[in-house]
Hints:
This protein has helices spanning 13-17, 27-39, 62-68, 84-92, 106-113, 117-134, 156-168, 185-196, 215-224, 252-261, 270-284, 291-298, and strands spanning 8-11, 44-49, 76-80, 97-103, 137-143, 173-178, 204-208, 229-232. The protein is α/β, with parallel strands linked by helices. Strands 1-8-7-6-5-4-3-2 form an 8-stranded parallel β-sheet. β2, α3 (62-68) and β3 form a beta-alpha-beta unit. α2 (27-39) packs antiparallel against α11 (270-284). The chain starts with 7 loop residues before the first strand and ends with a helix.
Amino acid sequence: MSLPTHVRLIEVGPRDGLQNEAQPISVADKVQLVDALSAAGLGYIEVGSFVSPKWVPQMAGSGDVFAQIQRKPGVTYAALAPNLRGFEDAVAAGVKEVAVFAAASEAFSQRNINCSISESLARFVPIMDAAKQHGVNVRGYVSCVLGCPYEGAVAPEQVAFVARELYAMGCYEVSLGDTIGAGTAGATRRMFEVVGADVPRNKLAGHFHDTYGQAMANIYASLLEGIEVFDSSIAGLGGCPYAKGASGNVATEDVLYLLNGLGIETGIDMEQLLLAGEQICTVLGRPTGSRVAKARSAK
Ligand code: HMG
Ligand code: MG
């Protein structure tokens, strides 16, 4: 299969990147990050989550972040919603796009959202109905598509089942998450072959964590499978609180470098993106997880 000419990058740094941070991060710093990302040309930014603050304390102020960001025309500002309560809070905060999240493994589903896979899917149905009424788009996530921190191997057929259910209930796109970053290029291709037989490939996205250093190879493998949408996180921030040891998401700067090298358009400006990464790393007092940012600052 030939490579795409255009790829959409979904920036998950303010949500997936920051949700795992133990130190308090002010609303102003989160707002600055989101605004720096939109200034860099990202067309889709996951700003926060309307989840239980007991489960993920860092996302507690998401409504305030939404209230203060400068909405740039054409940019989608999205939030996670695990249940109807989260959806309603999101809508009240002016959110126009939400993401629901399920898992391909039962154990992870229990640890992350305290219910089984089938219970989670049933919980999303009223969200889909309410979303239709409010004109809100819903994206779907499947976690643990290339392995589970509790169960180990995950069959691609199980991923396909959950992805198919999310797509059938009205998610316009389903993002397949290698939550623990353990997948390899071969496994990635097989997984997309199997899932792609059930859900059109142009309705699928790849969400790679870089725990084992495989994310870039997995993205290239996904491109070869016809996938044209990828989730990534500025400065490689991130990790899921319910996947111990899972390190950051693949860095947006690094994915952009790969795509630029392939001549694939994204609409994102590397210099501005690097600035956004520098800013948030200063806030966190931590070196960047982006190899491109490291290489550039060493120059
Ligand atoms: P639960 O404890 O089973 O829920 O949690 P519950 O309905 O029994 O409610 C318990 C308490 O939470 C109640 O409060 C509710 O009001 C409150 P209390 O009476 O105890 O004071 N509550 C809420 N509060 C705020 N917002 C809400 C909400 N819902 C209930 N929406 C629940 C179930 C789903 C709520 C919980 O497990 C949860 O919030 N989980 C979120 C976990 C999470 O955010 N994980 C990280 C995101 S997923 C991820 O990172 C993976 C991804 O990146 C892809 C990948 O990498 O694979 C997407
Ligand atoms: Mg993730």
